[in-house]
Amino acid sequence: MSDAAMQSRFKELANRSYNNNQYTYTSFLSMAELAEYYEMERELAFACPKVFGGCELAERKMIRFGRQEDTGYEEDFPIVAIVIRPLIKKFSDDLNHRDFLGALMNLGIKRETLGDIFVRDNQACLFCIESMSEYIIDNLSRIKHTSVSAVVETDVSDITAPRLEEKIIQVASERIDAVIAKVYNLSRQDSLDMFPKGLIFLNGKLCSENAKLLKEDDVISVRGMGKFSFAQSINLSKKGKMNCRVFVYK
């Protein structure tokens, strides 16, 4: 969907929610698509939008327009969590994110109906639109050469809870481009090149300002590479550079 079409869709959903006193929802949106929403967030504020993807760490999210004060009732996001596990763990293939996503795509499922997939210990938690859950459970039986089960679960914190690796880096300043370069062992130029390509997100929003200074608890996502949080600047080295602590999501 083009940027103009996406913006038009947001307006249509917001107006329908406001005029009819009902909740309306987008499908799951990528971080790039969410960036379009954040550019017009103030314009859509009249419809009380809320963004959610199933859990705190989710990057693919839905937008809900509407609130209880106007509709007269509360309604949860139509998101369910499906846990996918090998039937016999000791005989299973080594499964990664691409394997789980590929198996779902092979079922003919549209990507916009699926949220994030969290993989841990050869099992996955998939967030999806509620209306797709029965189809996935009934049809997803194999990933690569591994037979799997798929069930809806309410407590998936054991899979979606973040695993963080502490890392101390040394940078000339807290500029986001410099920090990214150090965290992912890139040249400064490679880091700079990512910004005009729309690959950098700061606290869930597209970041085009490569000289922006990071502050404590900022979360940086680099498409294709991963995510980390900026914890703090610790001290200065003898050569005048800053020692900083970051936590890389694993």
Question: Overview of this structure, please?
Answer:
- Helix content is 26%, strand content 31%.
- The protein has helices at 3-20, 31-39, 68-71, 97-105, 133-139, 157-160, 176-183, 188-194; strands at 24-25, 50-52, 62-65, 79-86, 114-120, 123-129, 142-143, 146-152, 164-171, 200-202, 205-206, 218-222, 226-236, 242-249.
- By secondary structure, it is α+β, with helices and mostly antiparallel strands.
- The protein has a six-stranded antiparallel sheet with strand order 9-14-13-12-10-11.
- The chain contains eight helices and 14 strands.
- Helix 7 crosses helix 8 (188-194).
- Strand 13 and strand 14 (242-249) form a beta hairpin.
- The chain is globular, with a radius of gyration of 20 Å.
- The protein has three domains: 3-71; 79-160, RRM (RNA recognition motif) domain (Alpha-Beta Plaits, 2-Layer Sandwich); 164-249, RNA-binding S4 domain (Structural Genomics Hypothetical 15.5 Kd Protein In mrcA-pckA Intergenic Region, Chain A), CATH 3.10.290.
Specify the CATH architecture of the largest domain.
Roll
Low-pLDDT residue spans:
none
Range of strand content: 25-35%
Helix content estimate: 25-40%
The secondary-structure element order is HEHEEHEHEEHEEHEHHEEEEE
CATH secondary-structure class of the largest domain: Alpha Beta
Question: From the helix content, strand content and strand pairing, which structural class follows?
Answer: alpha+beta
Arrangement of strands in the largest sheet: 9-14-13-12-10-11
Number of domains: 3
Q: Calculate the terminal CA-CA distance, rounded to whole Å.
A: 31 Å
Radius of gyration: 20 Å
**Can you count the helices?**
8
Q: Work out the number of β strands.
A: 14
CATH topology of the largest domain: Structural Genomics Hypothetical 15.5 Kd Protein In mrcA-pckA Intergenic Region, Chain A
Largest sheet: 6 strands, antiparallel
Shape label: globular
> Mind telling me the CATH superfamily name of the largest domain?
RNA-binding S4 domain
Mean pLDDT: 93
